[in-house]
Amino acid sequence: MSLPLYQPTAATTTRFLFFTGKGGVGKTSLSCACALRLAEAGRRVLLVSTDPASNLDEVLETTLTSAPTPIPGAPGLHALNINPVAAAAAYRERLIGPMRGILPESALRSMEEQLSGSCTVEIAAFDEFSGLIGDPAATRDYDHVIFDTAPTGHTLRLMSLAKAWDQFLDTNTSGTSCLGPLAGLEKQRVIYEATVKTLADAALTTLVLVSRPQASALREARRTSAELRAIGVGNQCLVINGAFETRCAEDVTAQAMQQRGATALAAADDFIRSMPSYIVPLRPINILGIPGLRVLLAAAEPEPGESPGVKPQPLSEDWTPPQMESLESLVSTLEQQGHGVIMTMGKGGVGKTTVAAAIAVLLAQRGHAVHLSTTDPAAHLAQTLHGQVPGLTLSRIDPAAETALYQGEVMQAQGGAMDDAGRALLQEDLRSPCTEEIAVFRAFAREVGQGTQRFVVLDTAPTGHTLLLLDASEAYQRELERQARSTQPEEVLRLLQRLRDPDYTHILLVTLPEATPVHEAAALQADLRRARIQPFAWVINQSLLQSHTCDPLLQSRARSEHRYIEEVVQKHAPRTAWLPWQPEEPVGPAALAKLATTGVQHTLV
């Protein structure tokens, strides 16, 4: 498929630009490169991240705060991080502060608990950047304002329903939504409505959907596109990042990588042709710093090792990888207890499903009773194992089905006393990420409870969702109370106890040997430890170290893995397993068992 290179110019770029897409597709790198390109064309640019796990500082090699910071080496470019957690804390205090000294401490604590969910964090971030859009004075010094990550369709729909808040407040028995007390939102109604209007104005705002040439990333881009078009955000374009064509026809790895991308793009051809679409080629370096950002959007393909201003990586023959294990070695330890729960966690797109399936197959082949449960939307990998491995049973937690069941229960309990506008707002409230997480939470707790009699291997949701599922039974209880539900199953009551028991639950953090997946996994590990949940090991997946590729671009990328492999082994992981990039996707029992037994050669040739 022939697509033009993504080349943003001052003449064709709207004032507001939002980059959105599945985790790991390169939103931050592309938003930074776009901002740099416009600044170097003489425009004044403000780059803003709303990502809770922002790595804007790392990519720009500049320490950022919540105030605009000039970027060295890029005159005209300023950047800031909206810290959603800090924004949520300030948001809570803005609502609760006036009540201090008036309400009892128990009531204040209850309000703080109501404002502790992920939707509050999301709305607090929206509150921050709506000021950048809705207040002309806030960005009057800039020609372009570029956002790394866009608001979700749920947030924008909720803001567009602001006119229904009065009636919702009158009829909702708790006086809250998933965002906490709605009275605080009502005060911002005019600003929010103006922001939503600006986002829908094609003359002012462009939504850049970022994808990889991968089926899952393209599916997410398609879903996001449809969701935002439905509420009027129609000025969209698609950027496919990491497009790869090999220079080495006899290279099995390179040919397989090229073919996978071509197959994914062909399957999404109708979506790609439905809007202006562009490509950004896979580059031989990690995109860090101003020189790297210039390489990302360069019209000419840089030669590996010849990118101006980019520090060269050490040669493979000068580097010996640290000691790492095979997945089979981890399984030998995991099986000693005879039963329990094994969970794979990490950033979206790192291969959690594959790792979970490989562990389940190996345990079953060793004679254990094993249940593999996945949240994989396609569930294609699990389907290839159905009935193929004695002792292995399969199930799928269907978020849509679990959520629909939960939504129906709440609508029946609360919606009958509301008019159409109130029910519309309640329905939107129930479409929030919080609702899905609570619904899936129940199924998740049910599966964890089965580990008393056998091994349960769980392919969990992406990082942000998973954290909320594991956060605490108290969060679940608060949501049940808010929505007038009061009965908790025994599995939920015992969930935290089981997750914190290192003999019962083993968590494997899965990552790629790249900056963002490693650093998000490290942040996840820190959050888990704060919840008194200790990860068991890390798995470095899809490494090119032993690919023996003759493609110079892939050789360069293999060398760039060194620093991240060393970081994982030396800084983060209690134990580390290593898995190679597979020319043939590991599907089916034989391929998964083979993957699990693969180990790294510690002297590379």
Report on this model:
The protein is α/β, with parallel strands linked by helices and 605 residues long. Helix content is 45%, strand content 14%. The strands form 3 sheets. It has an 8-stranded mixed beta sheet, sandwiched between helices. Strand 6 and strand 7 (180-181) form a beta hairpin. It is globular, with a radius of gyration of 24 Å. The two termini are 36 Å apart. 48% of the residues are buried. Residues 162-176, 179-183, 306-316 and 462-470 have low confidence and may be disordered.
Write a brief caption for the model.
Helices cover 45% and strands 14% of the residues. With 605 residues, it is of the alpha/beta class.
Give the topology.
Layout lengths: L15 E5 L6 H14 L4 E5 L6 H5 L8 E2 L6 E5 L2 H13 L8 H10 L3 H17 L9 E5 L4 H8 L4 H7 L4 E2 L2 E2 H5 L2 H11 L5 E7 L3 H15 L6 E8 L8 H16 L1 H4 L4 E5 L7 H8 L30 H8 L5 E6 L6 H14 L4 E5 L5 H4 L8 E5 L2 H16 L5 H10 L3 H17 L5 E5 L3 H8 L2 H10 L7 H4 L1 H5 L5 E7 L3 H16 L6 E7 L8 H9 L1 H11 L3 E5 L8 H9 L8
Parallel strand pairs: 1-5, 1-8, 2-4, 2-5, 8-9, 9-10, 11-14, 11-15, 12-13, 12-14, 15-16, 16-17
Antiparallel strand pairs: 3-4, 6-7
Helix pairs in contact: 1-13, 3-5, 5-9, 7-18, 15-27, 17-19, 19-20, 24-26
Give me the secondary-structure category: alpha/beta
Mean pLDDT: 80
Major sheet: arrangement of strands: 3-4-2-5-1-8-9-10
Give the DSSP E fraction (strand runs of 2 or more residues): 5-15%
Number of strands: 17
Q: First CA to last CA: what distance?
A: 36 Å
List keywords for this structure.
605 residues; alpha/beta; 17 strands; globular
